[in-house]
Amino acid sequence: MFTPPTHAPLALQKPRVLLAVNNIEEDCKSSDEDLQFIVQTKGRLENEIITNPDIIIVQISTTKFAGFNPLSQSGVCLLDTFQIALLEEFRQSRIVDTAIVDGEAPSQIQLKEIKRLLELGLMQVVGEQTFLRKGQSQELTAWLHVTNDCNLGCDYCYIYKTPDPMELEQGQQAVEAVFRSAQTHNFPKVKLKYAGGEATLNYSLVLALHAYAQQLAKRYQLELDGVVLSNGIAISNRMIRDMQTYGLRLMISLDGVGEYHDRQRQFRNGRGSFAYVERTLDRLARHNFTPSINVTISNRNLDGLPDVIAYILDRKLPFSLNFYRENECSAAMTDLVYQEEKIIAAMKAAFAVIEQNLPPYSLLGTLVDRARLDAPHRYTCGVGRSYLVIDHKGGVAKCHMEIGQPVTDIRAADPLELVMSDQNGIQNLPVEEKEGCRDCAWRYWCTGGCPALTYRMTGRFDVKSPNCNIYKALFPELLRLEGLRLLKYGG
Ligand code: SF4
Ligand code: SF4
Asked: How would you list the strands of the sheet with 48-51, edge to edge?
């Protein structure tokens, strides 16, 4: 619990907002809704002012604090004891001109800081209301399942693998279908995720489809992004050069260092794959090509989490952490299921490692599973809104975890419309429709977790995530980390 200081030094630490990194990649289509908080009145010093009752303050050192208003766009602000003292003074509303601060009328410095706290939304005018302006996703993302084959047999994988590749003609039709829907729904940008199975097993198709997508993007004047999702086992020098030539990005799955990775990412014969991934990371470094790392956390690799974070930070790689999601294929592997206390402890240990080697970019959107504390949103992901998953036979599903249950296929005039109107598969509800989430302070940053997981564990889409307690325990820690990061790189 935070105890406010009684005497505030006159240190003028400018509150700072976050910086985000935008090249982090994950399996899921993250939300990019462009949600805005609109405040009715602009706070002025002559108004009756109060400290915003919603703000969350986390102490990060003896004299520094991270402040966060969950109903504002300001992000995490770095505060000192002077500003904290002002926030405490204004827990009771006052008119500033006549306010007595710390026994005296406010000084010019205090007035300046009050103004700044108002601008940041940490203070507000009494009775002020905040409205949500709903945005629209700017990017249609499509998972292209270029093969149903894989050279690994990871225990948590949700794909029923077969040796079947996607054929060129099918792939081209899939790309055309994505662009058709993007045009119809006015998306300015298309992102293609080349996935499987293991996408590099059908690498010539990846390159052919991306070249084709580049033609279509030019023709329709749409922005294009392409990323290869890979297990990182067999990425040759030639493949890396091709990715650089084609402007493709790369995401690699890495779940631990050595045996911790091998415990859940093995070849079909049971042999671990870490050494192969490490060889690929070395190769990529020689080419100056930076992949994004995706870490899946289960009960099996929890203890190795601090080590893998240290390993990733040493290599200066962007990364994201995601919690294991039980699925039909993995349900029998009960040792993958994590306990709340254990995963919270492991995550805190990982945060301690990050604290020792803070990166220059914000980690608010990538450390706690599907939550994104870097941008407000109402939906956990793009399912049913801005995401298409196209299997190797041309079926179109709503989510990669539902790839076996297509809603339509690539011959449809507008596959996205059918995905949006589907009432049977995953229902991606806005956070206000989830029981338990409606009044939660974190609602527009957490949004209630992965709907596929919630349904699997509860049989409902309209309830909070089964990971809720874990998220609530970690969010303040995440704010603290961001505060420390701002302190390190502040200026
Ligand atoms: S899942 Fe929990 S932490 Fe997340 S929005 Fe819902 S109630 Fe809040
Ligand atoms: S439903 Fe879950 S697994 Fe599917 S895209 Fe959304 S968050 Fe990811």
From this structure: 94-95, 48-51, 123-125
Kindly list the protein residues whose Cβ atom lies closer than 6 A to any atom of ligand 2: 28-29, 370, 380-381, 383, 399, 401, 426, 450-452
Which two structure tokens, joined as six digits, stand for 256?
Answer: 């631990």
Residue 412 in tokens:
């449809």
Q: Same structural domain for residues 58 and 180?
A: no
C-alpha span between 111 and 323 (Å, rounded): 45
At 357, which CATH number?
Answer: 3.20.20.70
Question: What does the pLDDT look like over 160-205, one tens digit per residue?
Answer: 999 999 999 999 999 999 999 999 999 999 999 999 999 999 999 9
**Angle between the N-to-C axes of helices 168-184 and 203-220, in degrees from 0 to 180, rounded to the nearest 10:** 30
- Give the C-alpha separation, 380 to 28, whole Å: 10
pLDDT in tens, 62-97: 999 999 999 998 999 999 999 999 999 999 998 887
Both 106 and 247 in one domain: the answer is: no
Q: Look at ligand 2, atom 8, and give the residue with the nearest C-alpha.
A: 28
Answer yes or no: are the C-beta atoms of 45 and 88 closer than 8 Å: no
Ligand 2 midpoint to CA 334 (Å) = 21
Is residue 442 in contact with ligand 1, taking CB distance under 6 Å? yes
Separation between Cα atoms, residue 302 and residue 255, nearest integer Å: 9
Q: How many domains does the chain have?
A: 2
What are the helix and strand counts (H, E) for the chain?
Answer: 13, 17
> Is 228 found in the same domain as 143?
yes
DSSP letter for each residue of 453-486:
HHHHHHS-SSB--TTHHHHHHHHHHHHHHHHHHH
Q: What is the pTM assigned to this prediction?
A: 0.92
Supply the DSSP string of 306-325, one letter for each residue.
HHHHHHHHHTT--EEEEE--
In a domain, 465, yes or no: no
